[in-house]
Amino acid sequence: MQNFLTTIKVGTFLGTRQLRRANIWTTLLIVFIMMLTFLNMVVVSGILVGLIDGGNIANRKQYTGNVILTKLSGDPYIENTQNILATIPTIPGVTKWNERYSTGAQFEANYLTRRDFNTERDTVGSSLLGIDVKQEDDLTNLSKYVLEGEYLDPNESGYILMGSTLLRRFSSAFGDGFGSLDGVYPGDRVKVTSNGKTKEFIVKGIVKSKVGEVSFRAFITKQDFLQFVERPSLNADEIAIATDGSITDDALKSTLVNYGFDRFGLIQTATEAIPDFLNQIKLAFGLLGNVIGFIGIVVASITIFIVIFINAVTRRKYIGILKGIGVTSGAIEFSYVLQSFVYAVIGAGLGMLLIYTVFVPLLNAHPLDFPFSDGILSAPIGGTMIRFFLLLIVTLFAGYIPARMIVKKNTLDSILGR
Amino acid sequence: MIKAQHIVKTFKNGSVETRVLKDVSLQIEQGEFIAIMGKSGAGKSTFMYQLGLLDHPTSGDIIIDDINATSLNHDDRTRFRLENLGYIFQDYALVPELTAIENVIVPLLMQGKSDDEATEIARASLAQIGLSHRENNLPSQMSGGEQQRVSIARAVAHKPKILFADEPTANLDNVSSESVMDVFRDLHNQGQTIIMVTHEPEYTRYCNRVIYLSDGQIVDEKKI
After folding, report:
1. Terminus of chain B with fewer CB atoms < 10 Å: N or C?
2. What is the pLDDT of residues A82-106, one digit of tens each?
């Protein structure tokens, strides 16, 4: 034990002085490489995962809230909706909610200017939603996403808010995978047909969002919807609920289940409501990021290996002298491991500082603009710490191995440089 | 005190074998100041490395204070060197990142001494050779003579039984060489056993015995 402590003490003595008196530019270069490696490990995978996470966050904010109820498979709507709506405000932590009424519909544009009846009508099929205009805006800030025209007015009737993806001028980037309407602008009229009934609406605004449930659908007021669809009850198709954060999504779901509402609708947290393919993409992106990060680790460990190896080779004579005067191999090796440790801690530490003080806030404030989401940097502290320790361990080995290789050489050969 | 018995050292380079030391035996008593002399290639440095346990003889024994040092394993030899032997090399061999006092402190710390104790001993050792004012200088900030004296301070700070010096004045001018030899004389006068390899006959006057090596064998011996 005493020998071990002496070895650590002498190794620390040698290592700290080598660090202190090393060439500052060399040290800065190594630290810079370690920092870039750490950023590579965290940021690349973080952005890839963040593309999906950004989409999920947007989905939560603009569509599901914290928990969403949808109709059970095979049911026409959520039974007992009014009872559920009466109960929701009594649940502690719930701040906002809204019920949505939905039906499949066909939208037709340009029918007033269509002269040749042999040409196909300009139509697109999608969902038509009836919403409480104010409550929906409170819940999802839908009005914020109005790109052209205005948001719906609860006191007006006969207006429709069209999702931008239903219009060709916005959806052309998606290719010809689905139909879309030509040149519809606020003030234009569209014909909406659902369940054999047709009604003309004036386009009040165009709403654009990267959440499919917003940009792929059309919205009218709840009153217009109920009149148009003639639904015999006030049972809704979706109920989205948001909390103030004092209750977890899972706890809220449990509360709703305890009320027995799972008999009337499918209750899902925002996370559960994420389509499975998105989770699969997230996993794939995470894996891809880890592969890229792994390559970064290999590169960094090779760099450290080379740096320590060159350092040890050029100091081979002094290593021989130290061994000659009685300094143990362990102490000399520890001095190099300590140097690697310091390089890794400072480099990764700076990287971490940069991630949490610059990159995360910056990308939260200015997300990367991707077609299907606003990409943020997903860097949970747990995952970042795992990468930090991984880099540390790899670096320690990368420092130890070359030092060991040189220290193992014959003492006299090292001293004499043969 | 130190006995070299039938030391043979052979170097192999592929299929070529070169016998550098040919059955060399020598006995050195405590407090002696021995000079090993000979032409280049005579085997004097090789012989000193065997005596100083920096190398393993091909055959033969090195016995120091009744301990057969050739039978010690790697770690025990390192420990033995640390506690009993001191070395001075031709090119000073100071660690460039360590100041004068830090160079002297390292082996003391390795012996398990506390920081304070090691610093105190190192300081006294540097004072003994008149280098107190250079304590915090790096080797690159000192002259060759000063570096060699720091190297002597490092070698003697832990009071080794035997001090080995491999051509300690080879890289020094006359003034510095005399100054280094004066330090050796003082140490010898204090009872230090010194074994020095040199090719400069003028410095044999500091010694009390000179061993002449030629072609790997002791060919002459002279008491002074």
Report:
1. C
2. 999 999 999 999 999 999 999 999 9
**CA neighbor of A269 nearest in space, from A46, A70, A405:** A70
3-state SS, residue A184: coil
CA distance B44 to B40: 8
A389-414 burial, b at 16+ Cβ within 10 Å, e below that, comes to: ebbbebbbebbbbbbbebbebebbeb
* pLDDT value for A173: 60
Closest chain B residue to the Cα of A412, Cα to Cα: B54
Q: Does the beta carbon of A318 lie under 8 angstroms from any beta carbon of chain B?
A: yes
Question: pTM for the whole thing?
Answer: 0.74
Contact A22 B95 (CB under 8 A): no
> Are A17 and A112 part of one and the same domain?
no
pLDDT over 60 at A176, yes or no: no
The DSSP output letter for B74 is H
* β-bridge partners, B10: B19
d(CA B13, CA A63): 80
Among A27-36, A44-53, A166-175, B204-213, whose mean pLDDT is lowest? A166-175
For B12, the domain range is 2-223
Whether A19 and A141 map to the same domain: the answer is no
Number of domains in chain B: 1
What secondary structure, in 3-state letters, does A269-311 show?
Answer: ECCCCCCHHHHHHHHHHHHHHHHHHHHHHHHHHHHHHHHHHHH
* Nearest alpha carbon to residue A240 among A66, A82, A102, A80: A66
Neighboring chain B residues of A10 at a CB cutoff of 8 Å: 106, 109-110
Q: Which of A269, A301, A320 is the last residue of a domain?
A: A269
Helix axes A381-407, A24-39, angle to 10 degrees: 140
Can you give the residue range of the structural domain that contains A372?
2-59+277-416
